[in-house]
Amino acid sequence: MKKLVLISIILLSNLFSSEVERANLEFTSLCIEDGSTGFNWKNGRWKQVNYAPNKFLIKKVKNSTPYCNAKKQDKKFKQKGLNFSMGCYLMKNMGDKNWGVMDIPSECNQVWKLINKKYVLTRINCKQIMFQKDGNFIKHSLGGNLDNKPKNDYKDSIFTSHGKCSIINAN
Predict the structure, then answer these.
(1) What is the predicted pLDDT for the residue at 65?
(2) CA dist 105 → 61, 62, 68 (Å)
């Protein structure tokens, strides 16, 4: 009987930590913009514009790719009910064939929060997007050309958008 109680305690403690141990759980989220605004460069100056809402997919992938440093993935640290780690993510617009630039994943910071004795993935911070796998997101692009007179009077657009993501697949 004592062995049964001991085994039950061990199994329950594993349940409480399973969310962090499942850091390699892969999922795909569909994200839909509620609004997007920004600036386009026209005739030597920035013009404010509103963009049509966009739909895109974000996919968490395994950490075993040369482009996403798996050693970084294993270095987690905790701070007052939070756990931080790295994860590999791909992103593509709905209808696009490929995931991102040549299907190369981005390294993103993952924030885990202690909720009811479990660490739960609450936020992912990537280069151009901060999102919840099943919640809100904020996406941006800052361009990068600061020249007053760019070549061919062209600069990449600058934008900020927001919306909601929903998990559509989890492995």
Answers:
(1) 67
(2) 8, 10, 7
Q: What is the 3-state secondary structure (H, E, C) of the chain?
A: CHHHHHHHHHHHHHHHHHHHHCCCCCEEEEEEEEEEEEEEEECCEEEEEECCCCEEEEEEECCCECCECHHHHHCCEEECCEEEEEEEEEEEECCCCCCCHHHCCEEEEEEEEEECCEEEEEEEECCCEEECCCCEEEEEECCCCCCCCCHHHCCCCEEEEEEEEEEEEEC
pLDDT, residue 80, reads: 80
For the cut 60, the answer to whether the pLDDT of residue 73 exceeds it is: no
User: Which pLDDT value is given to residue 104?
Assistant: 80
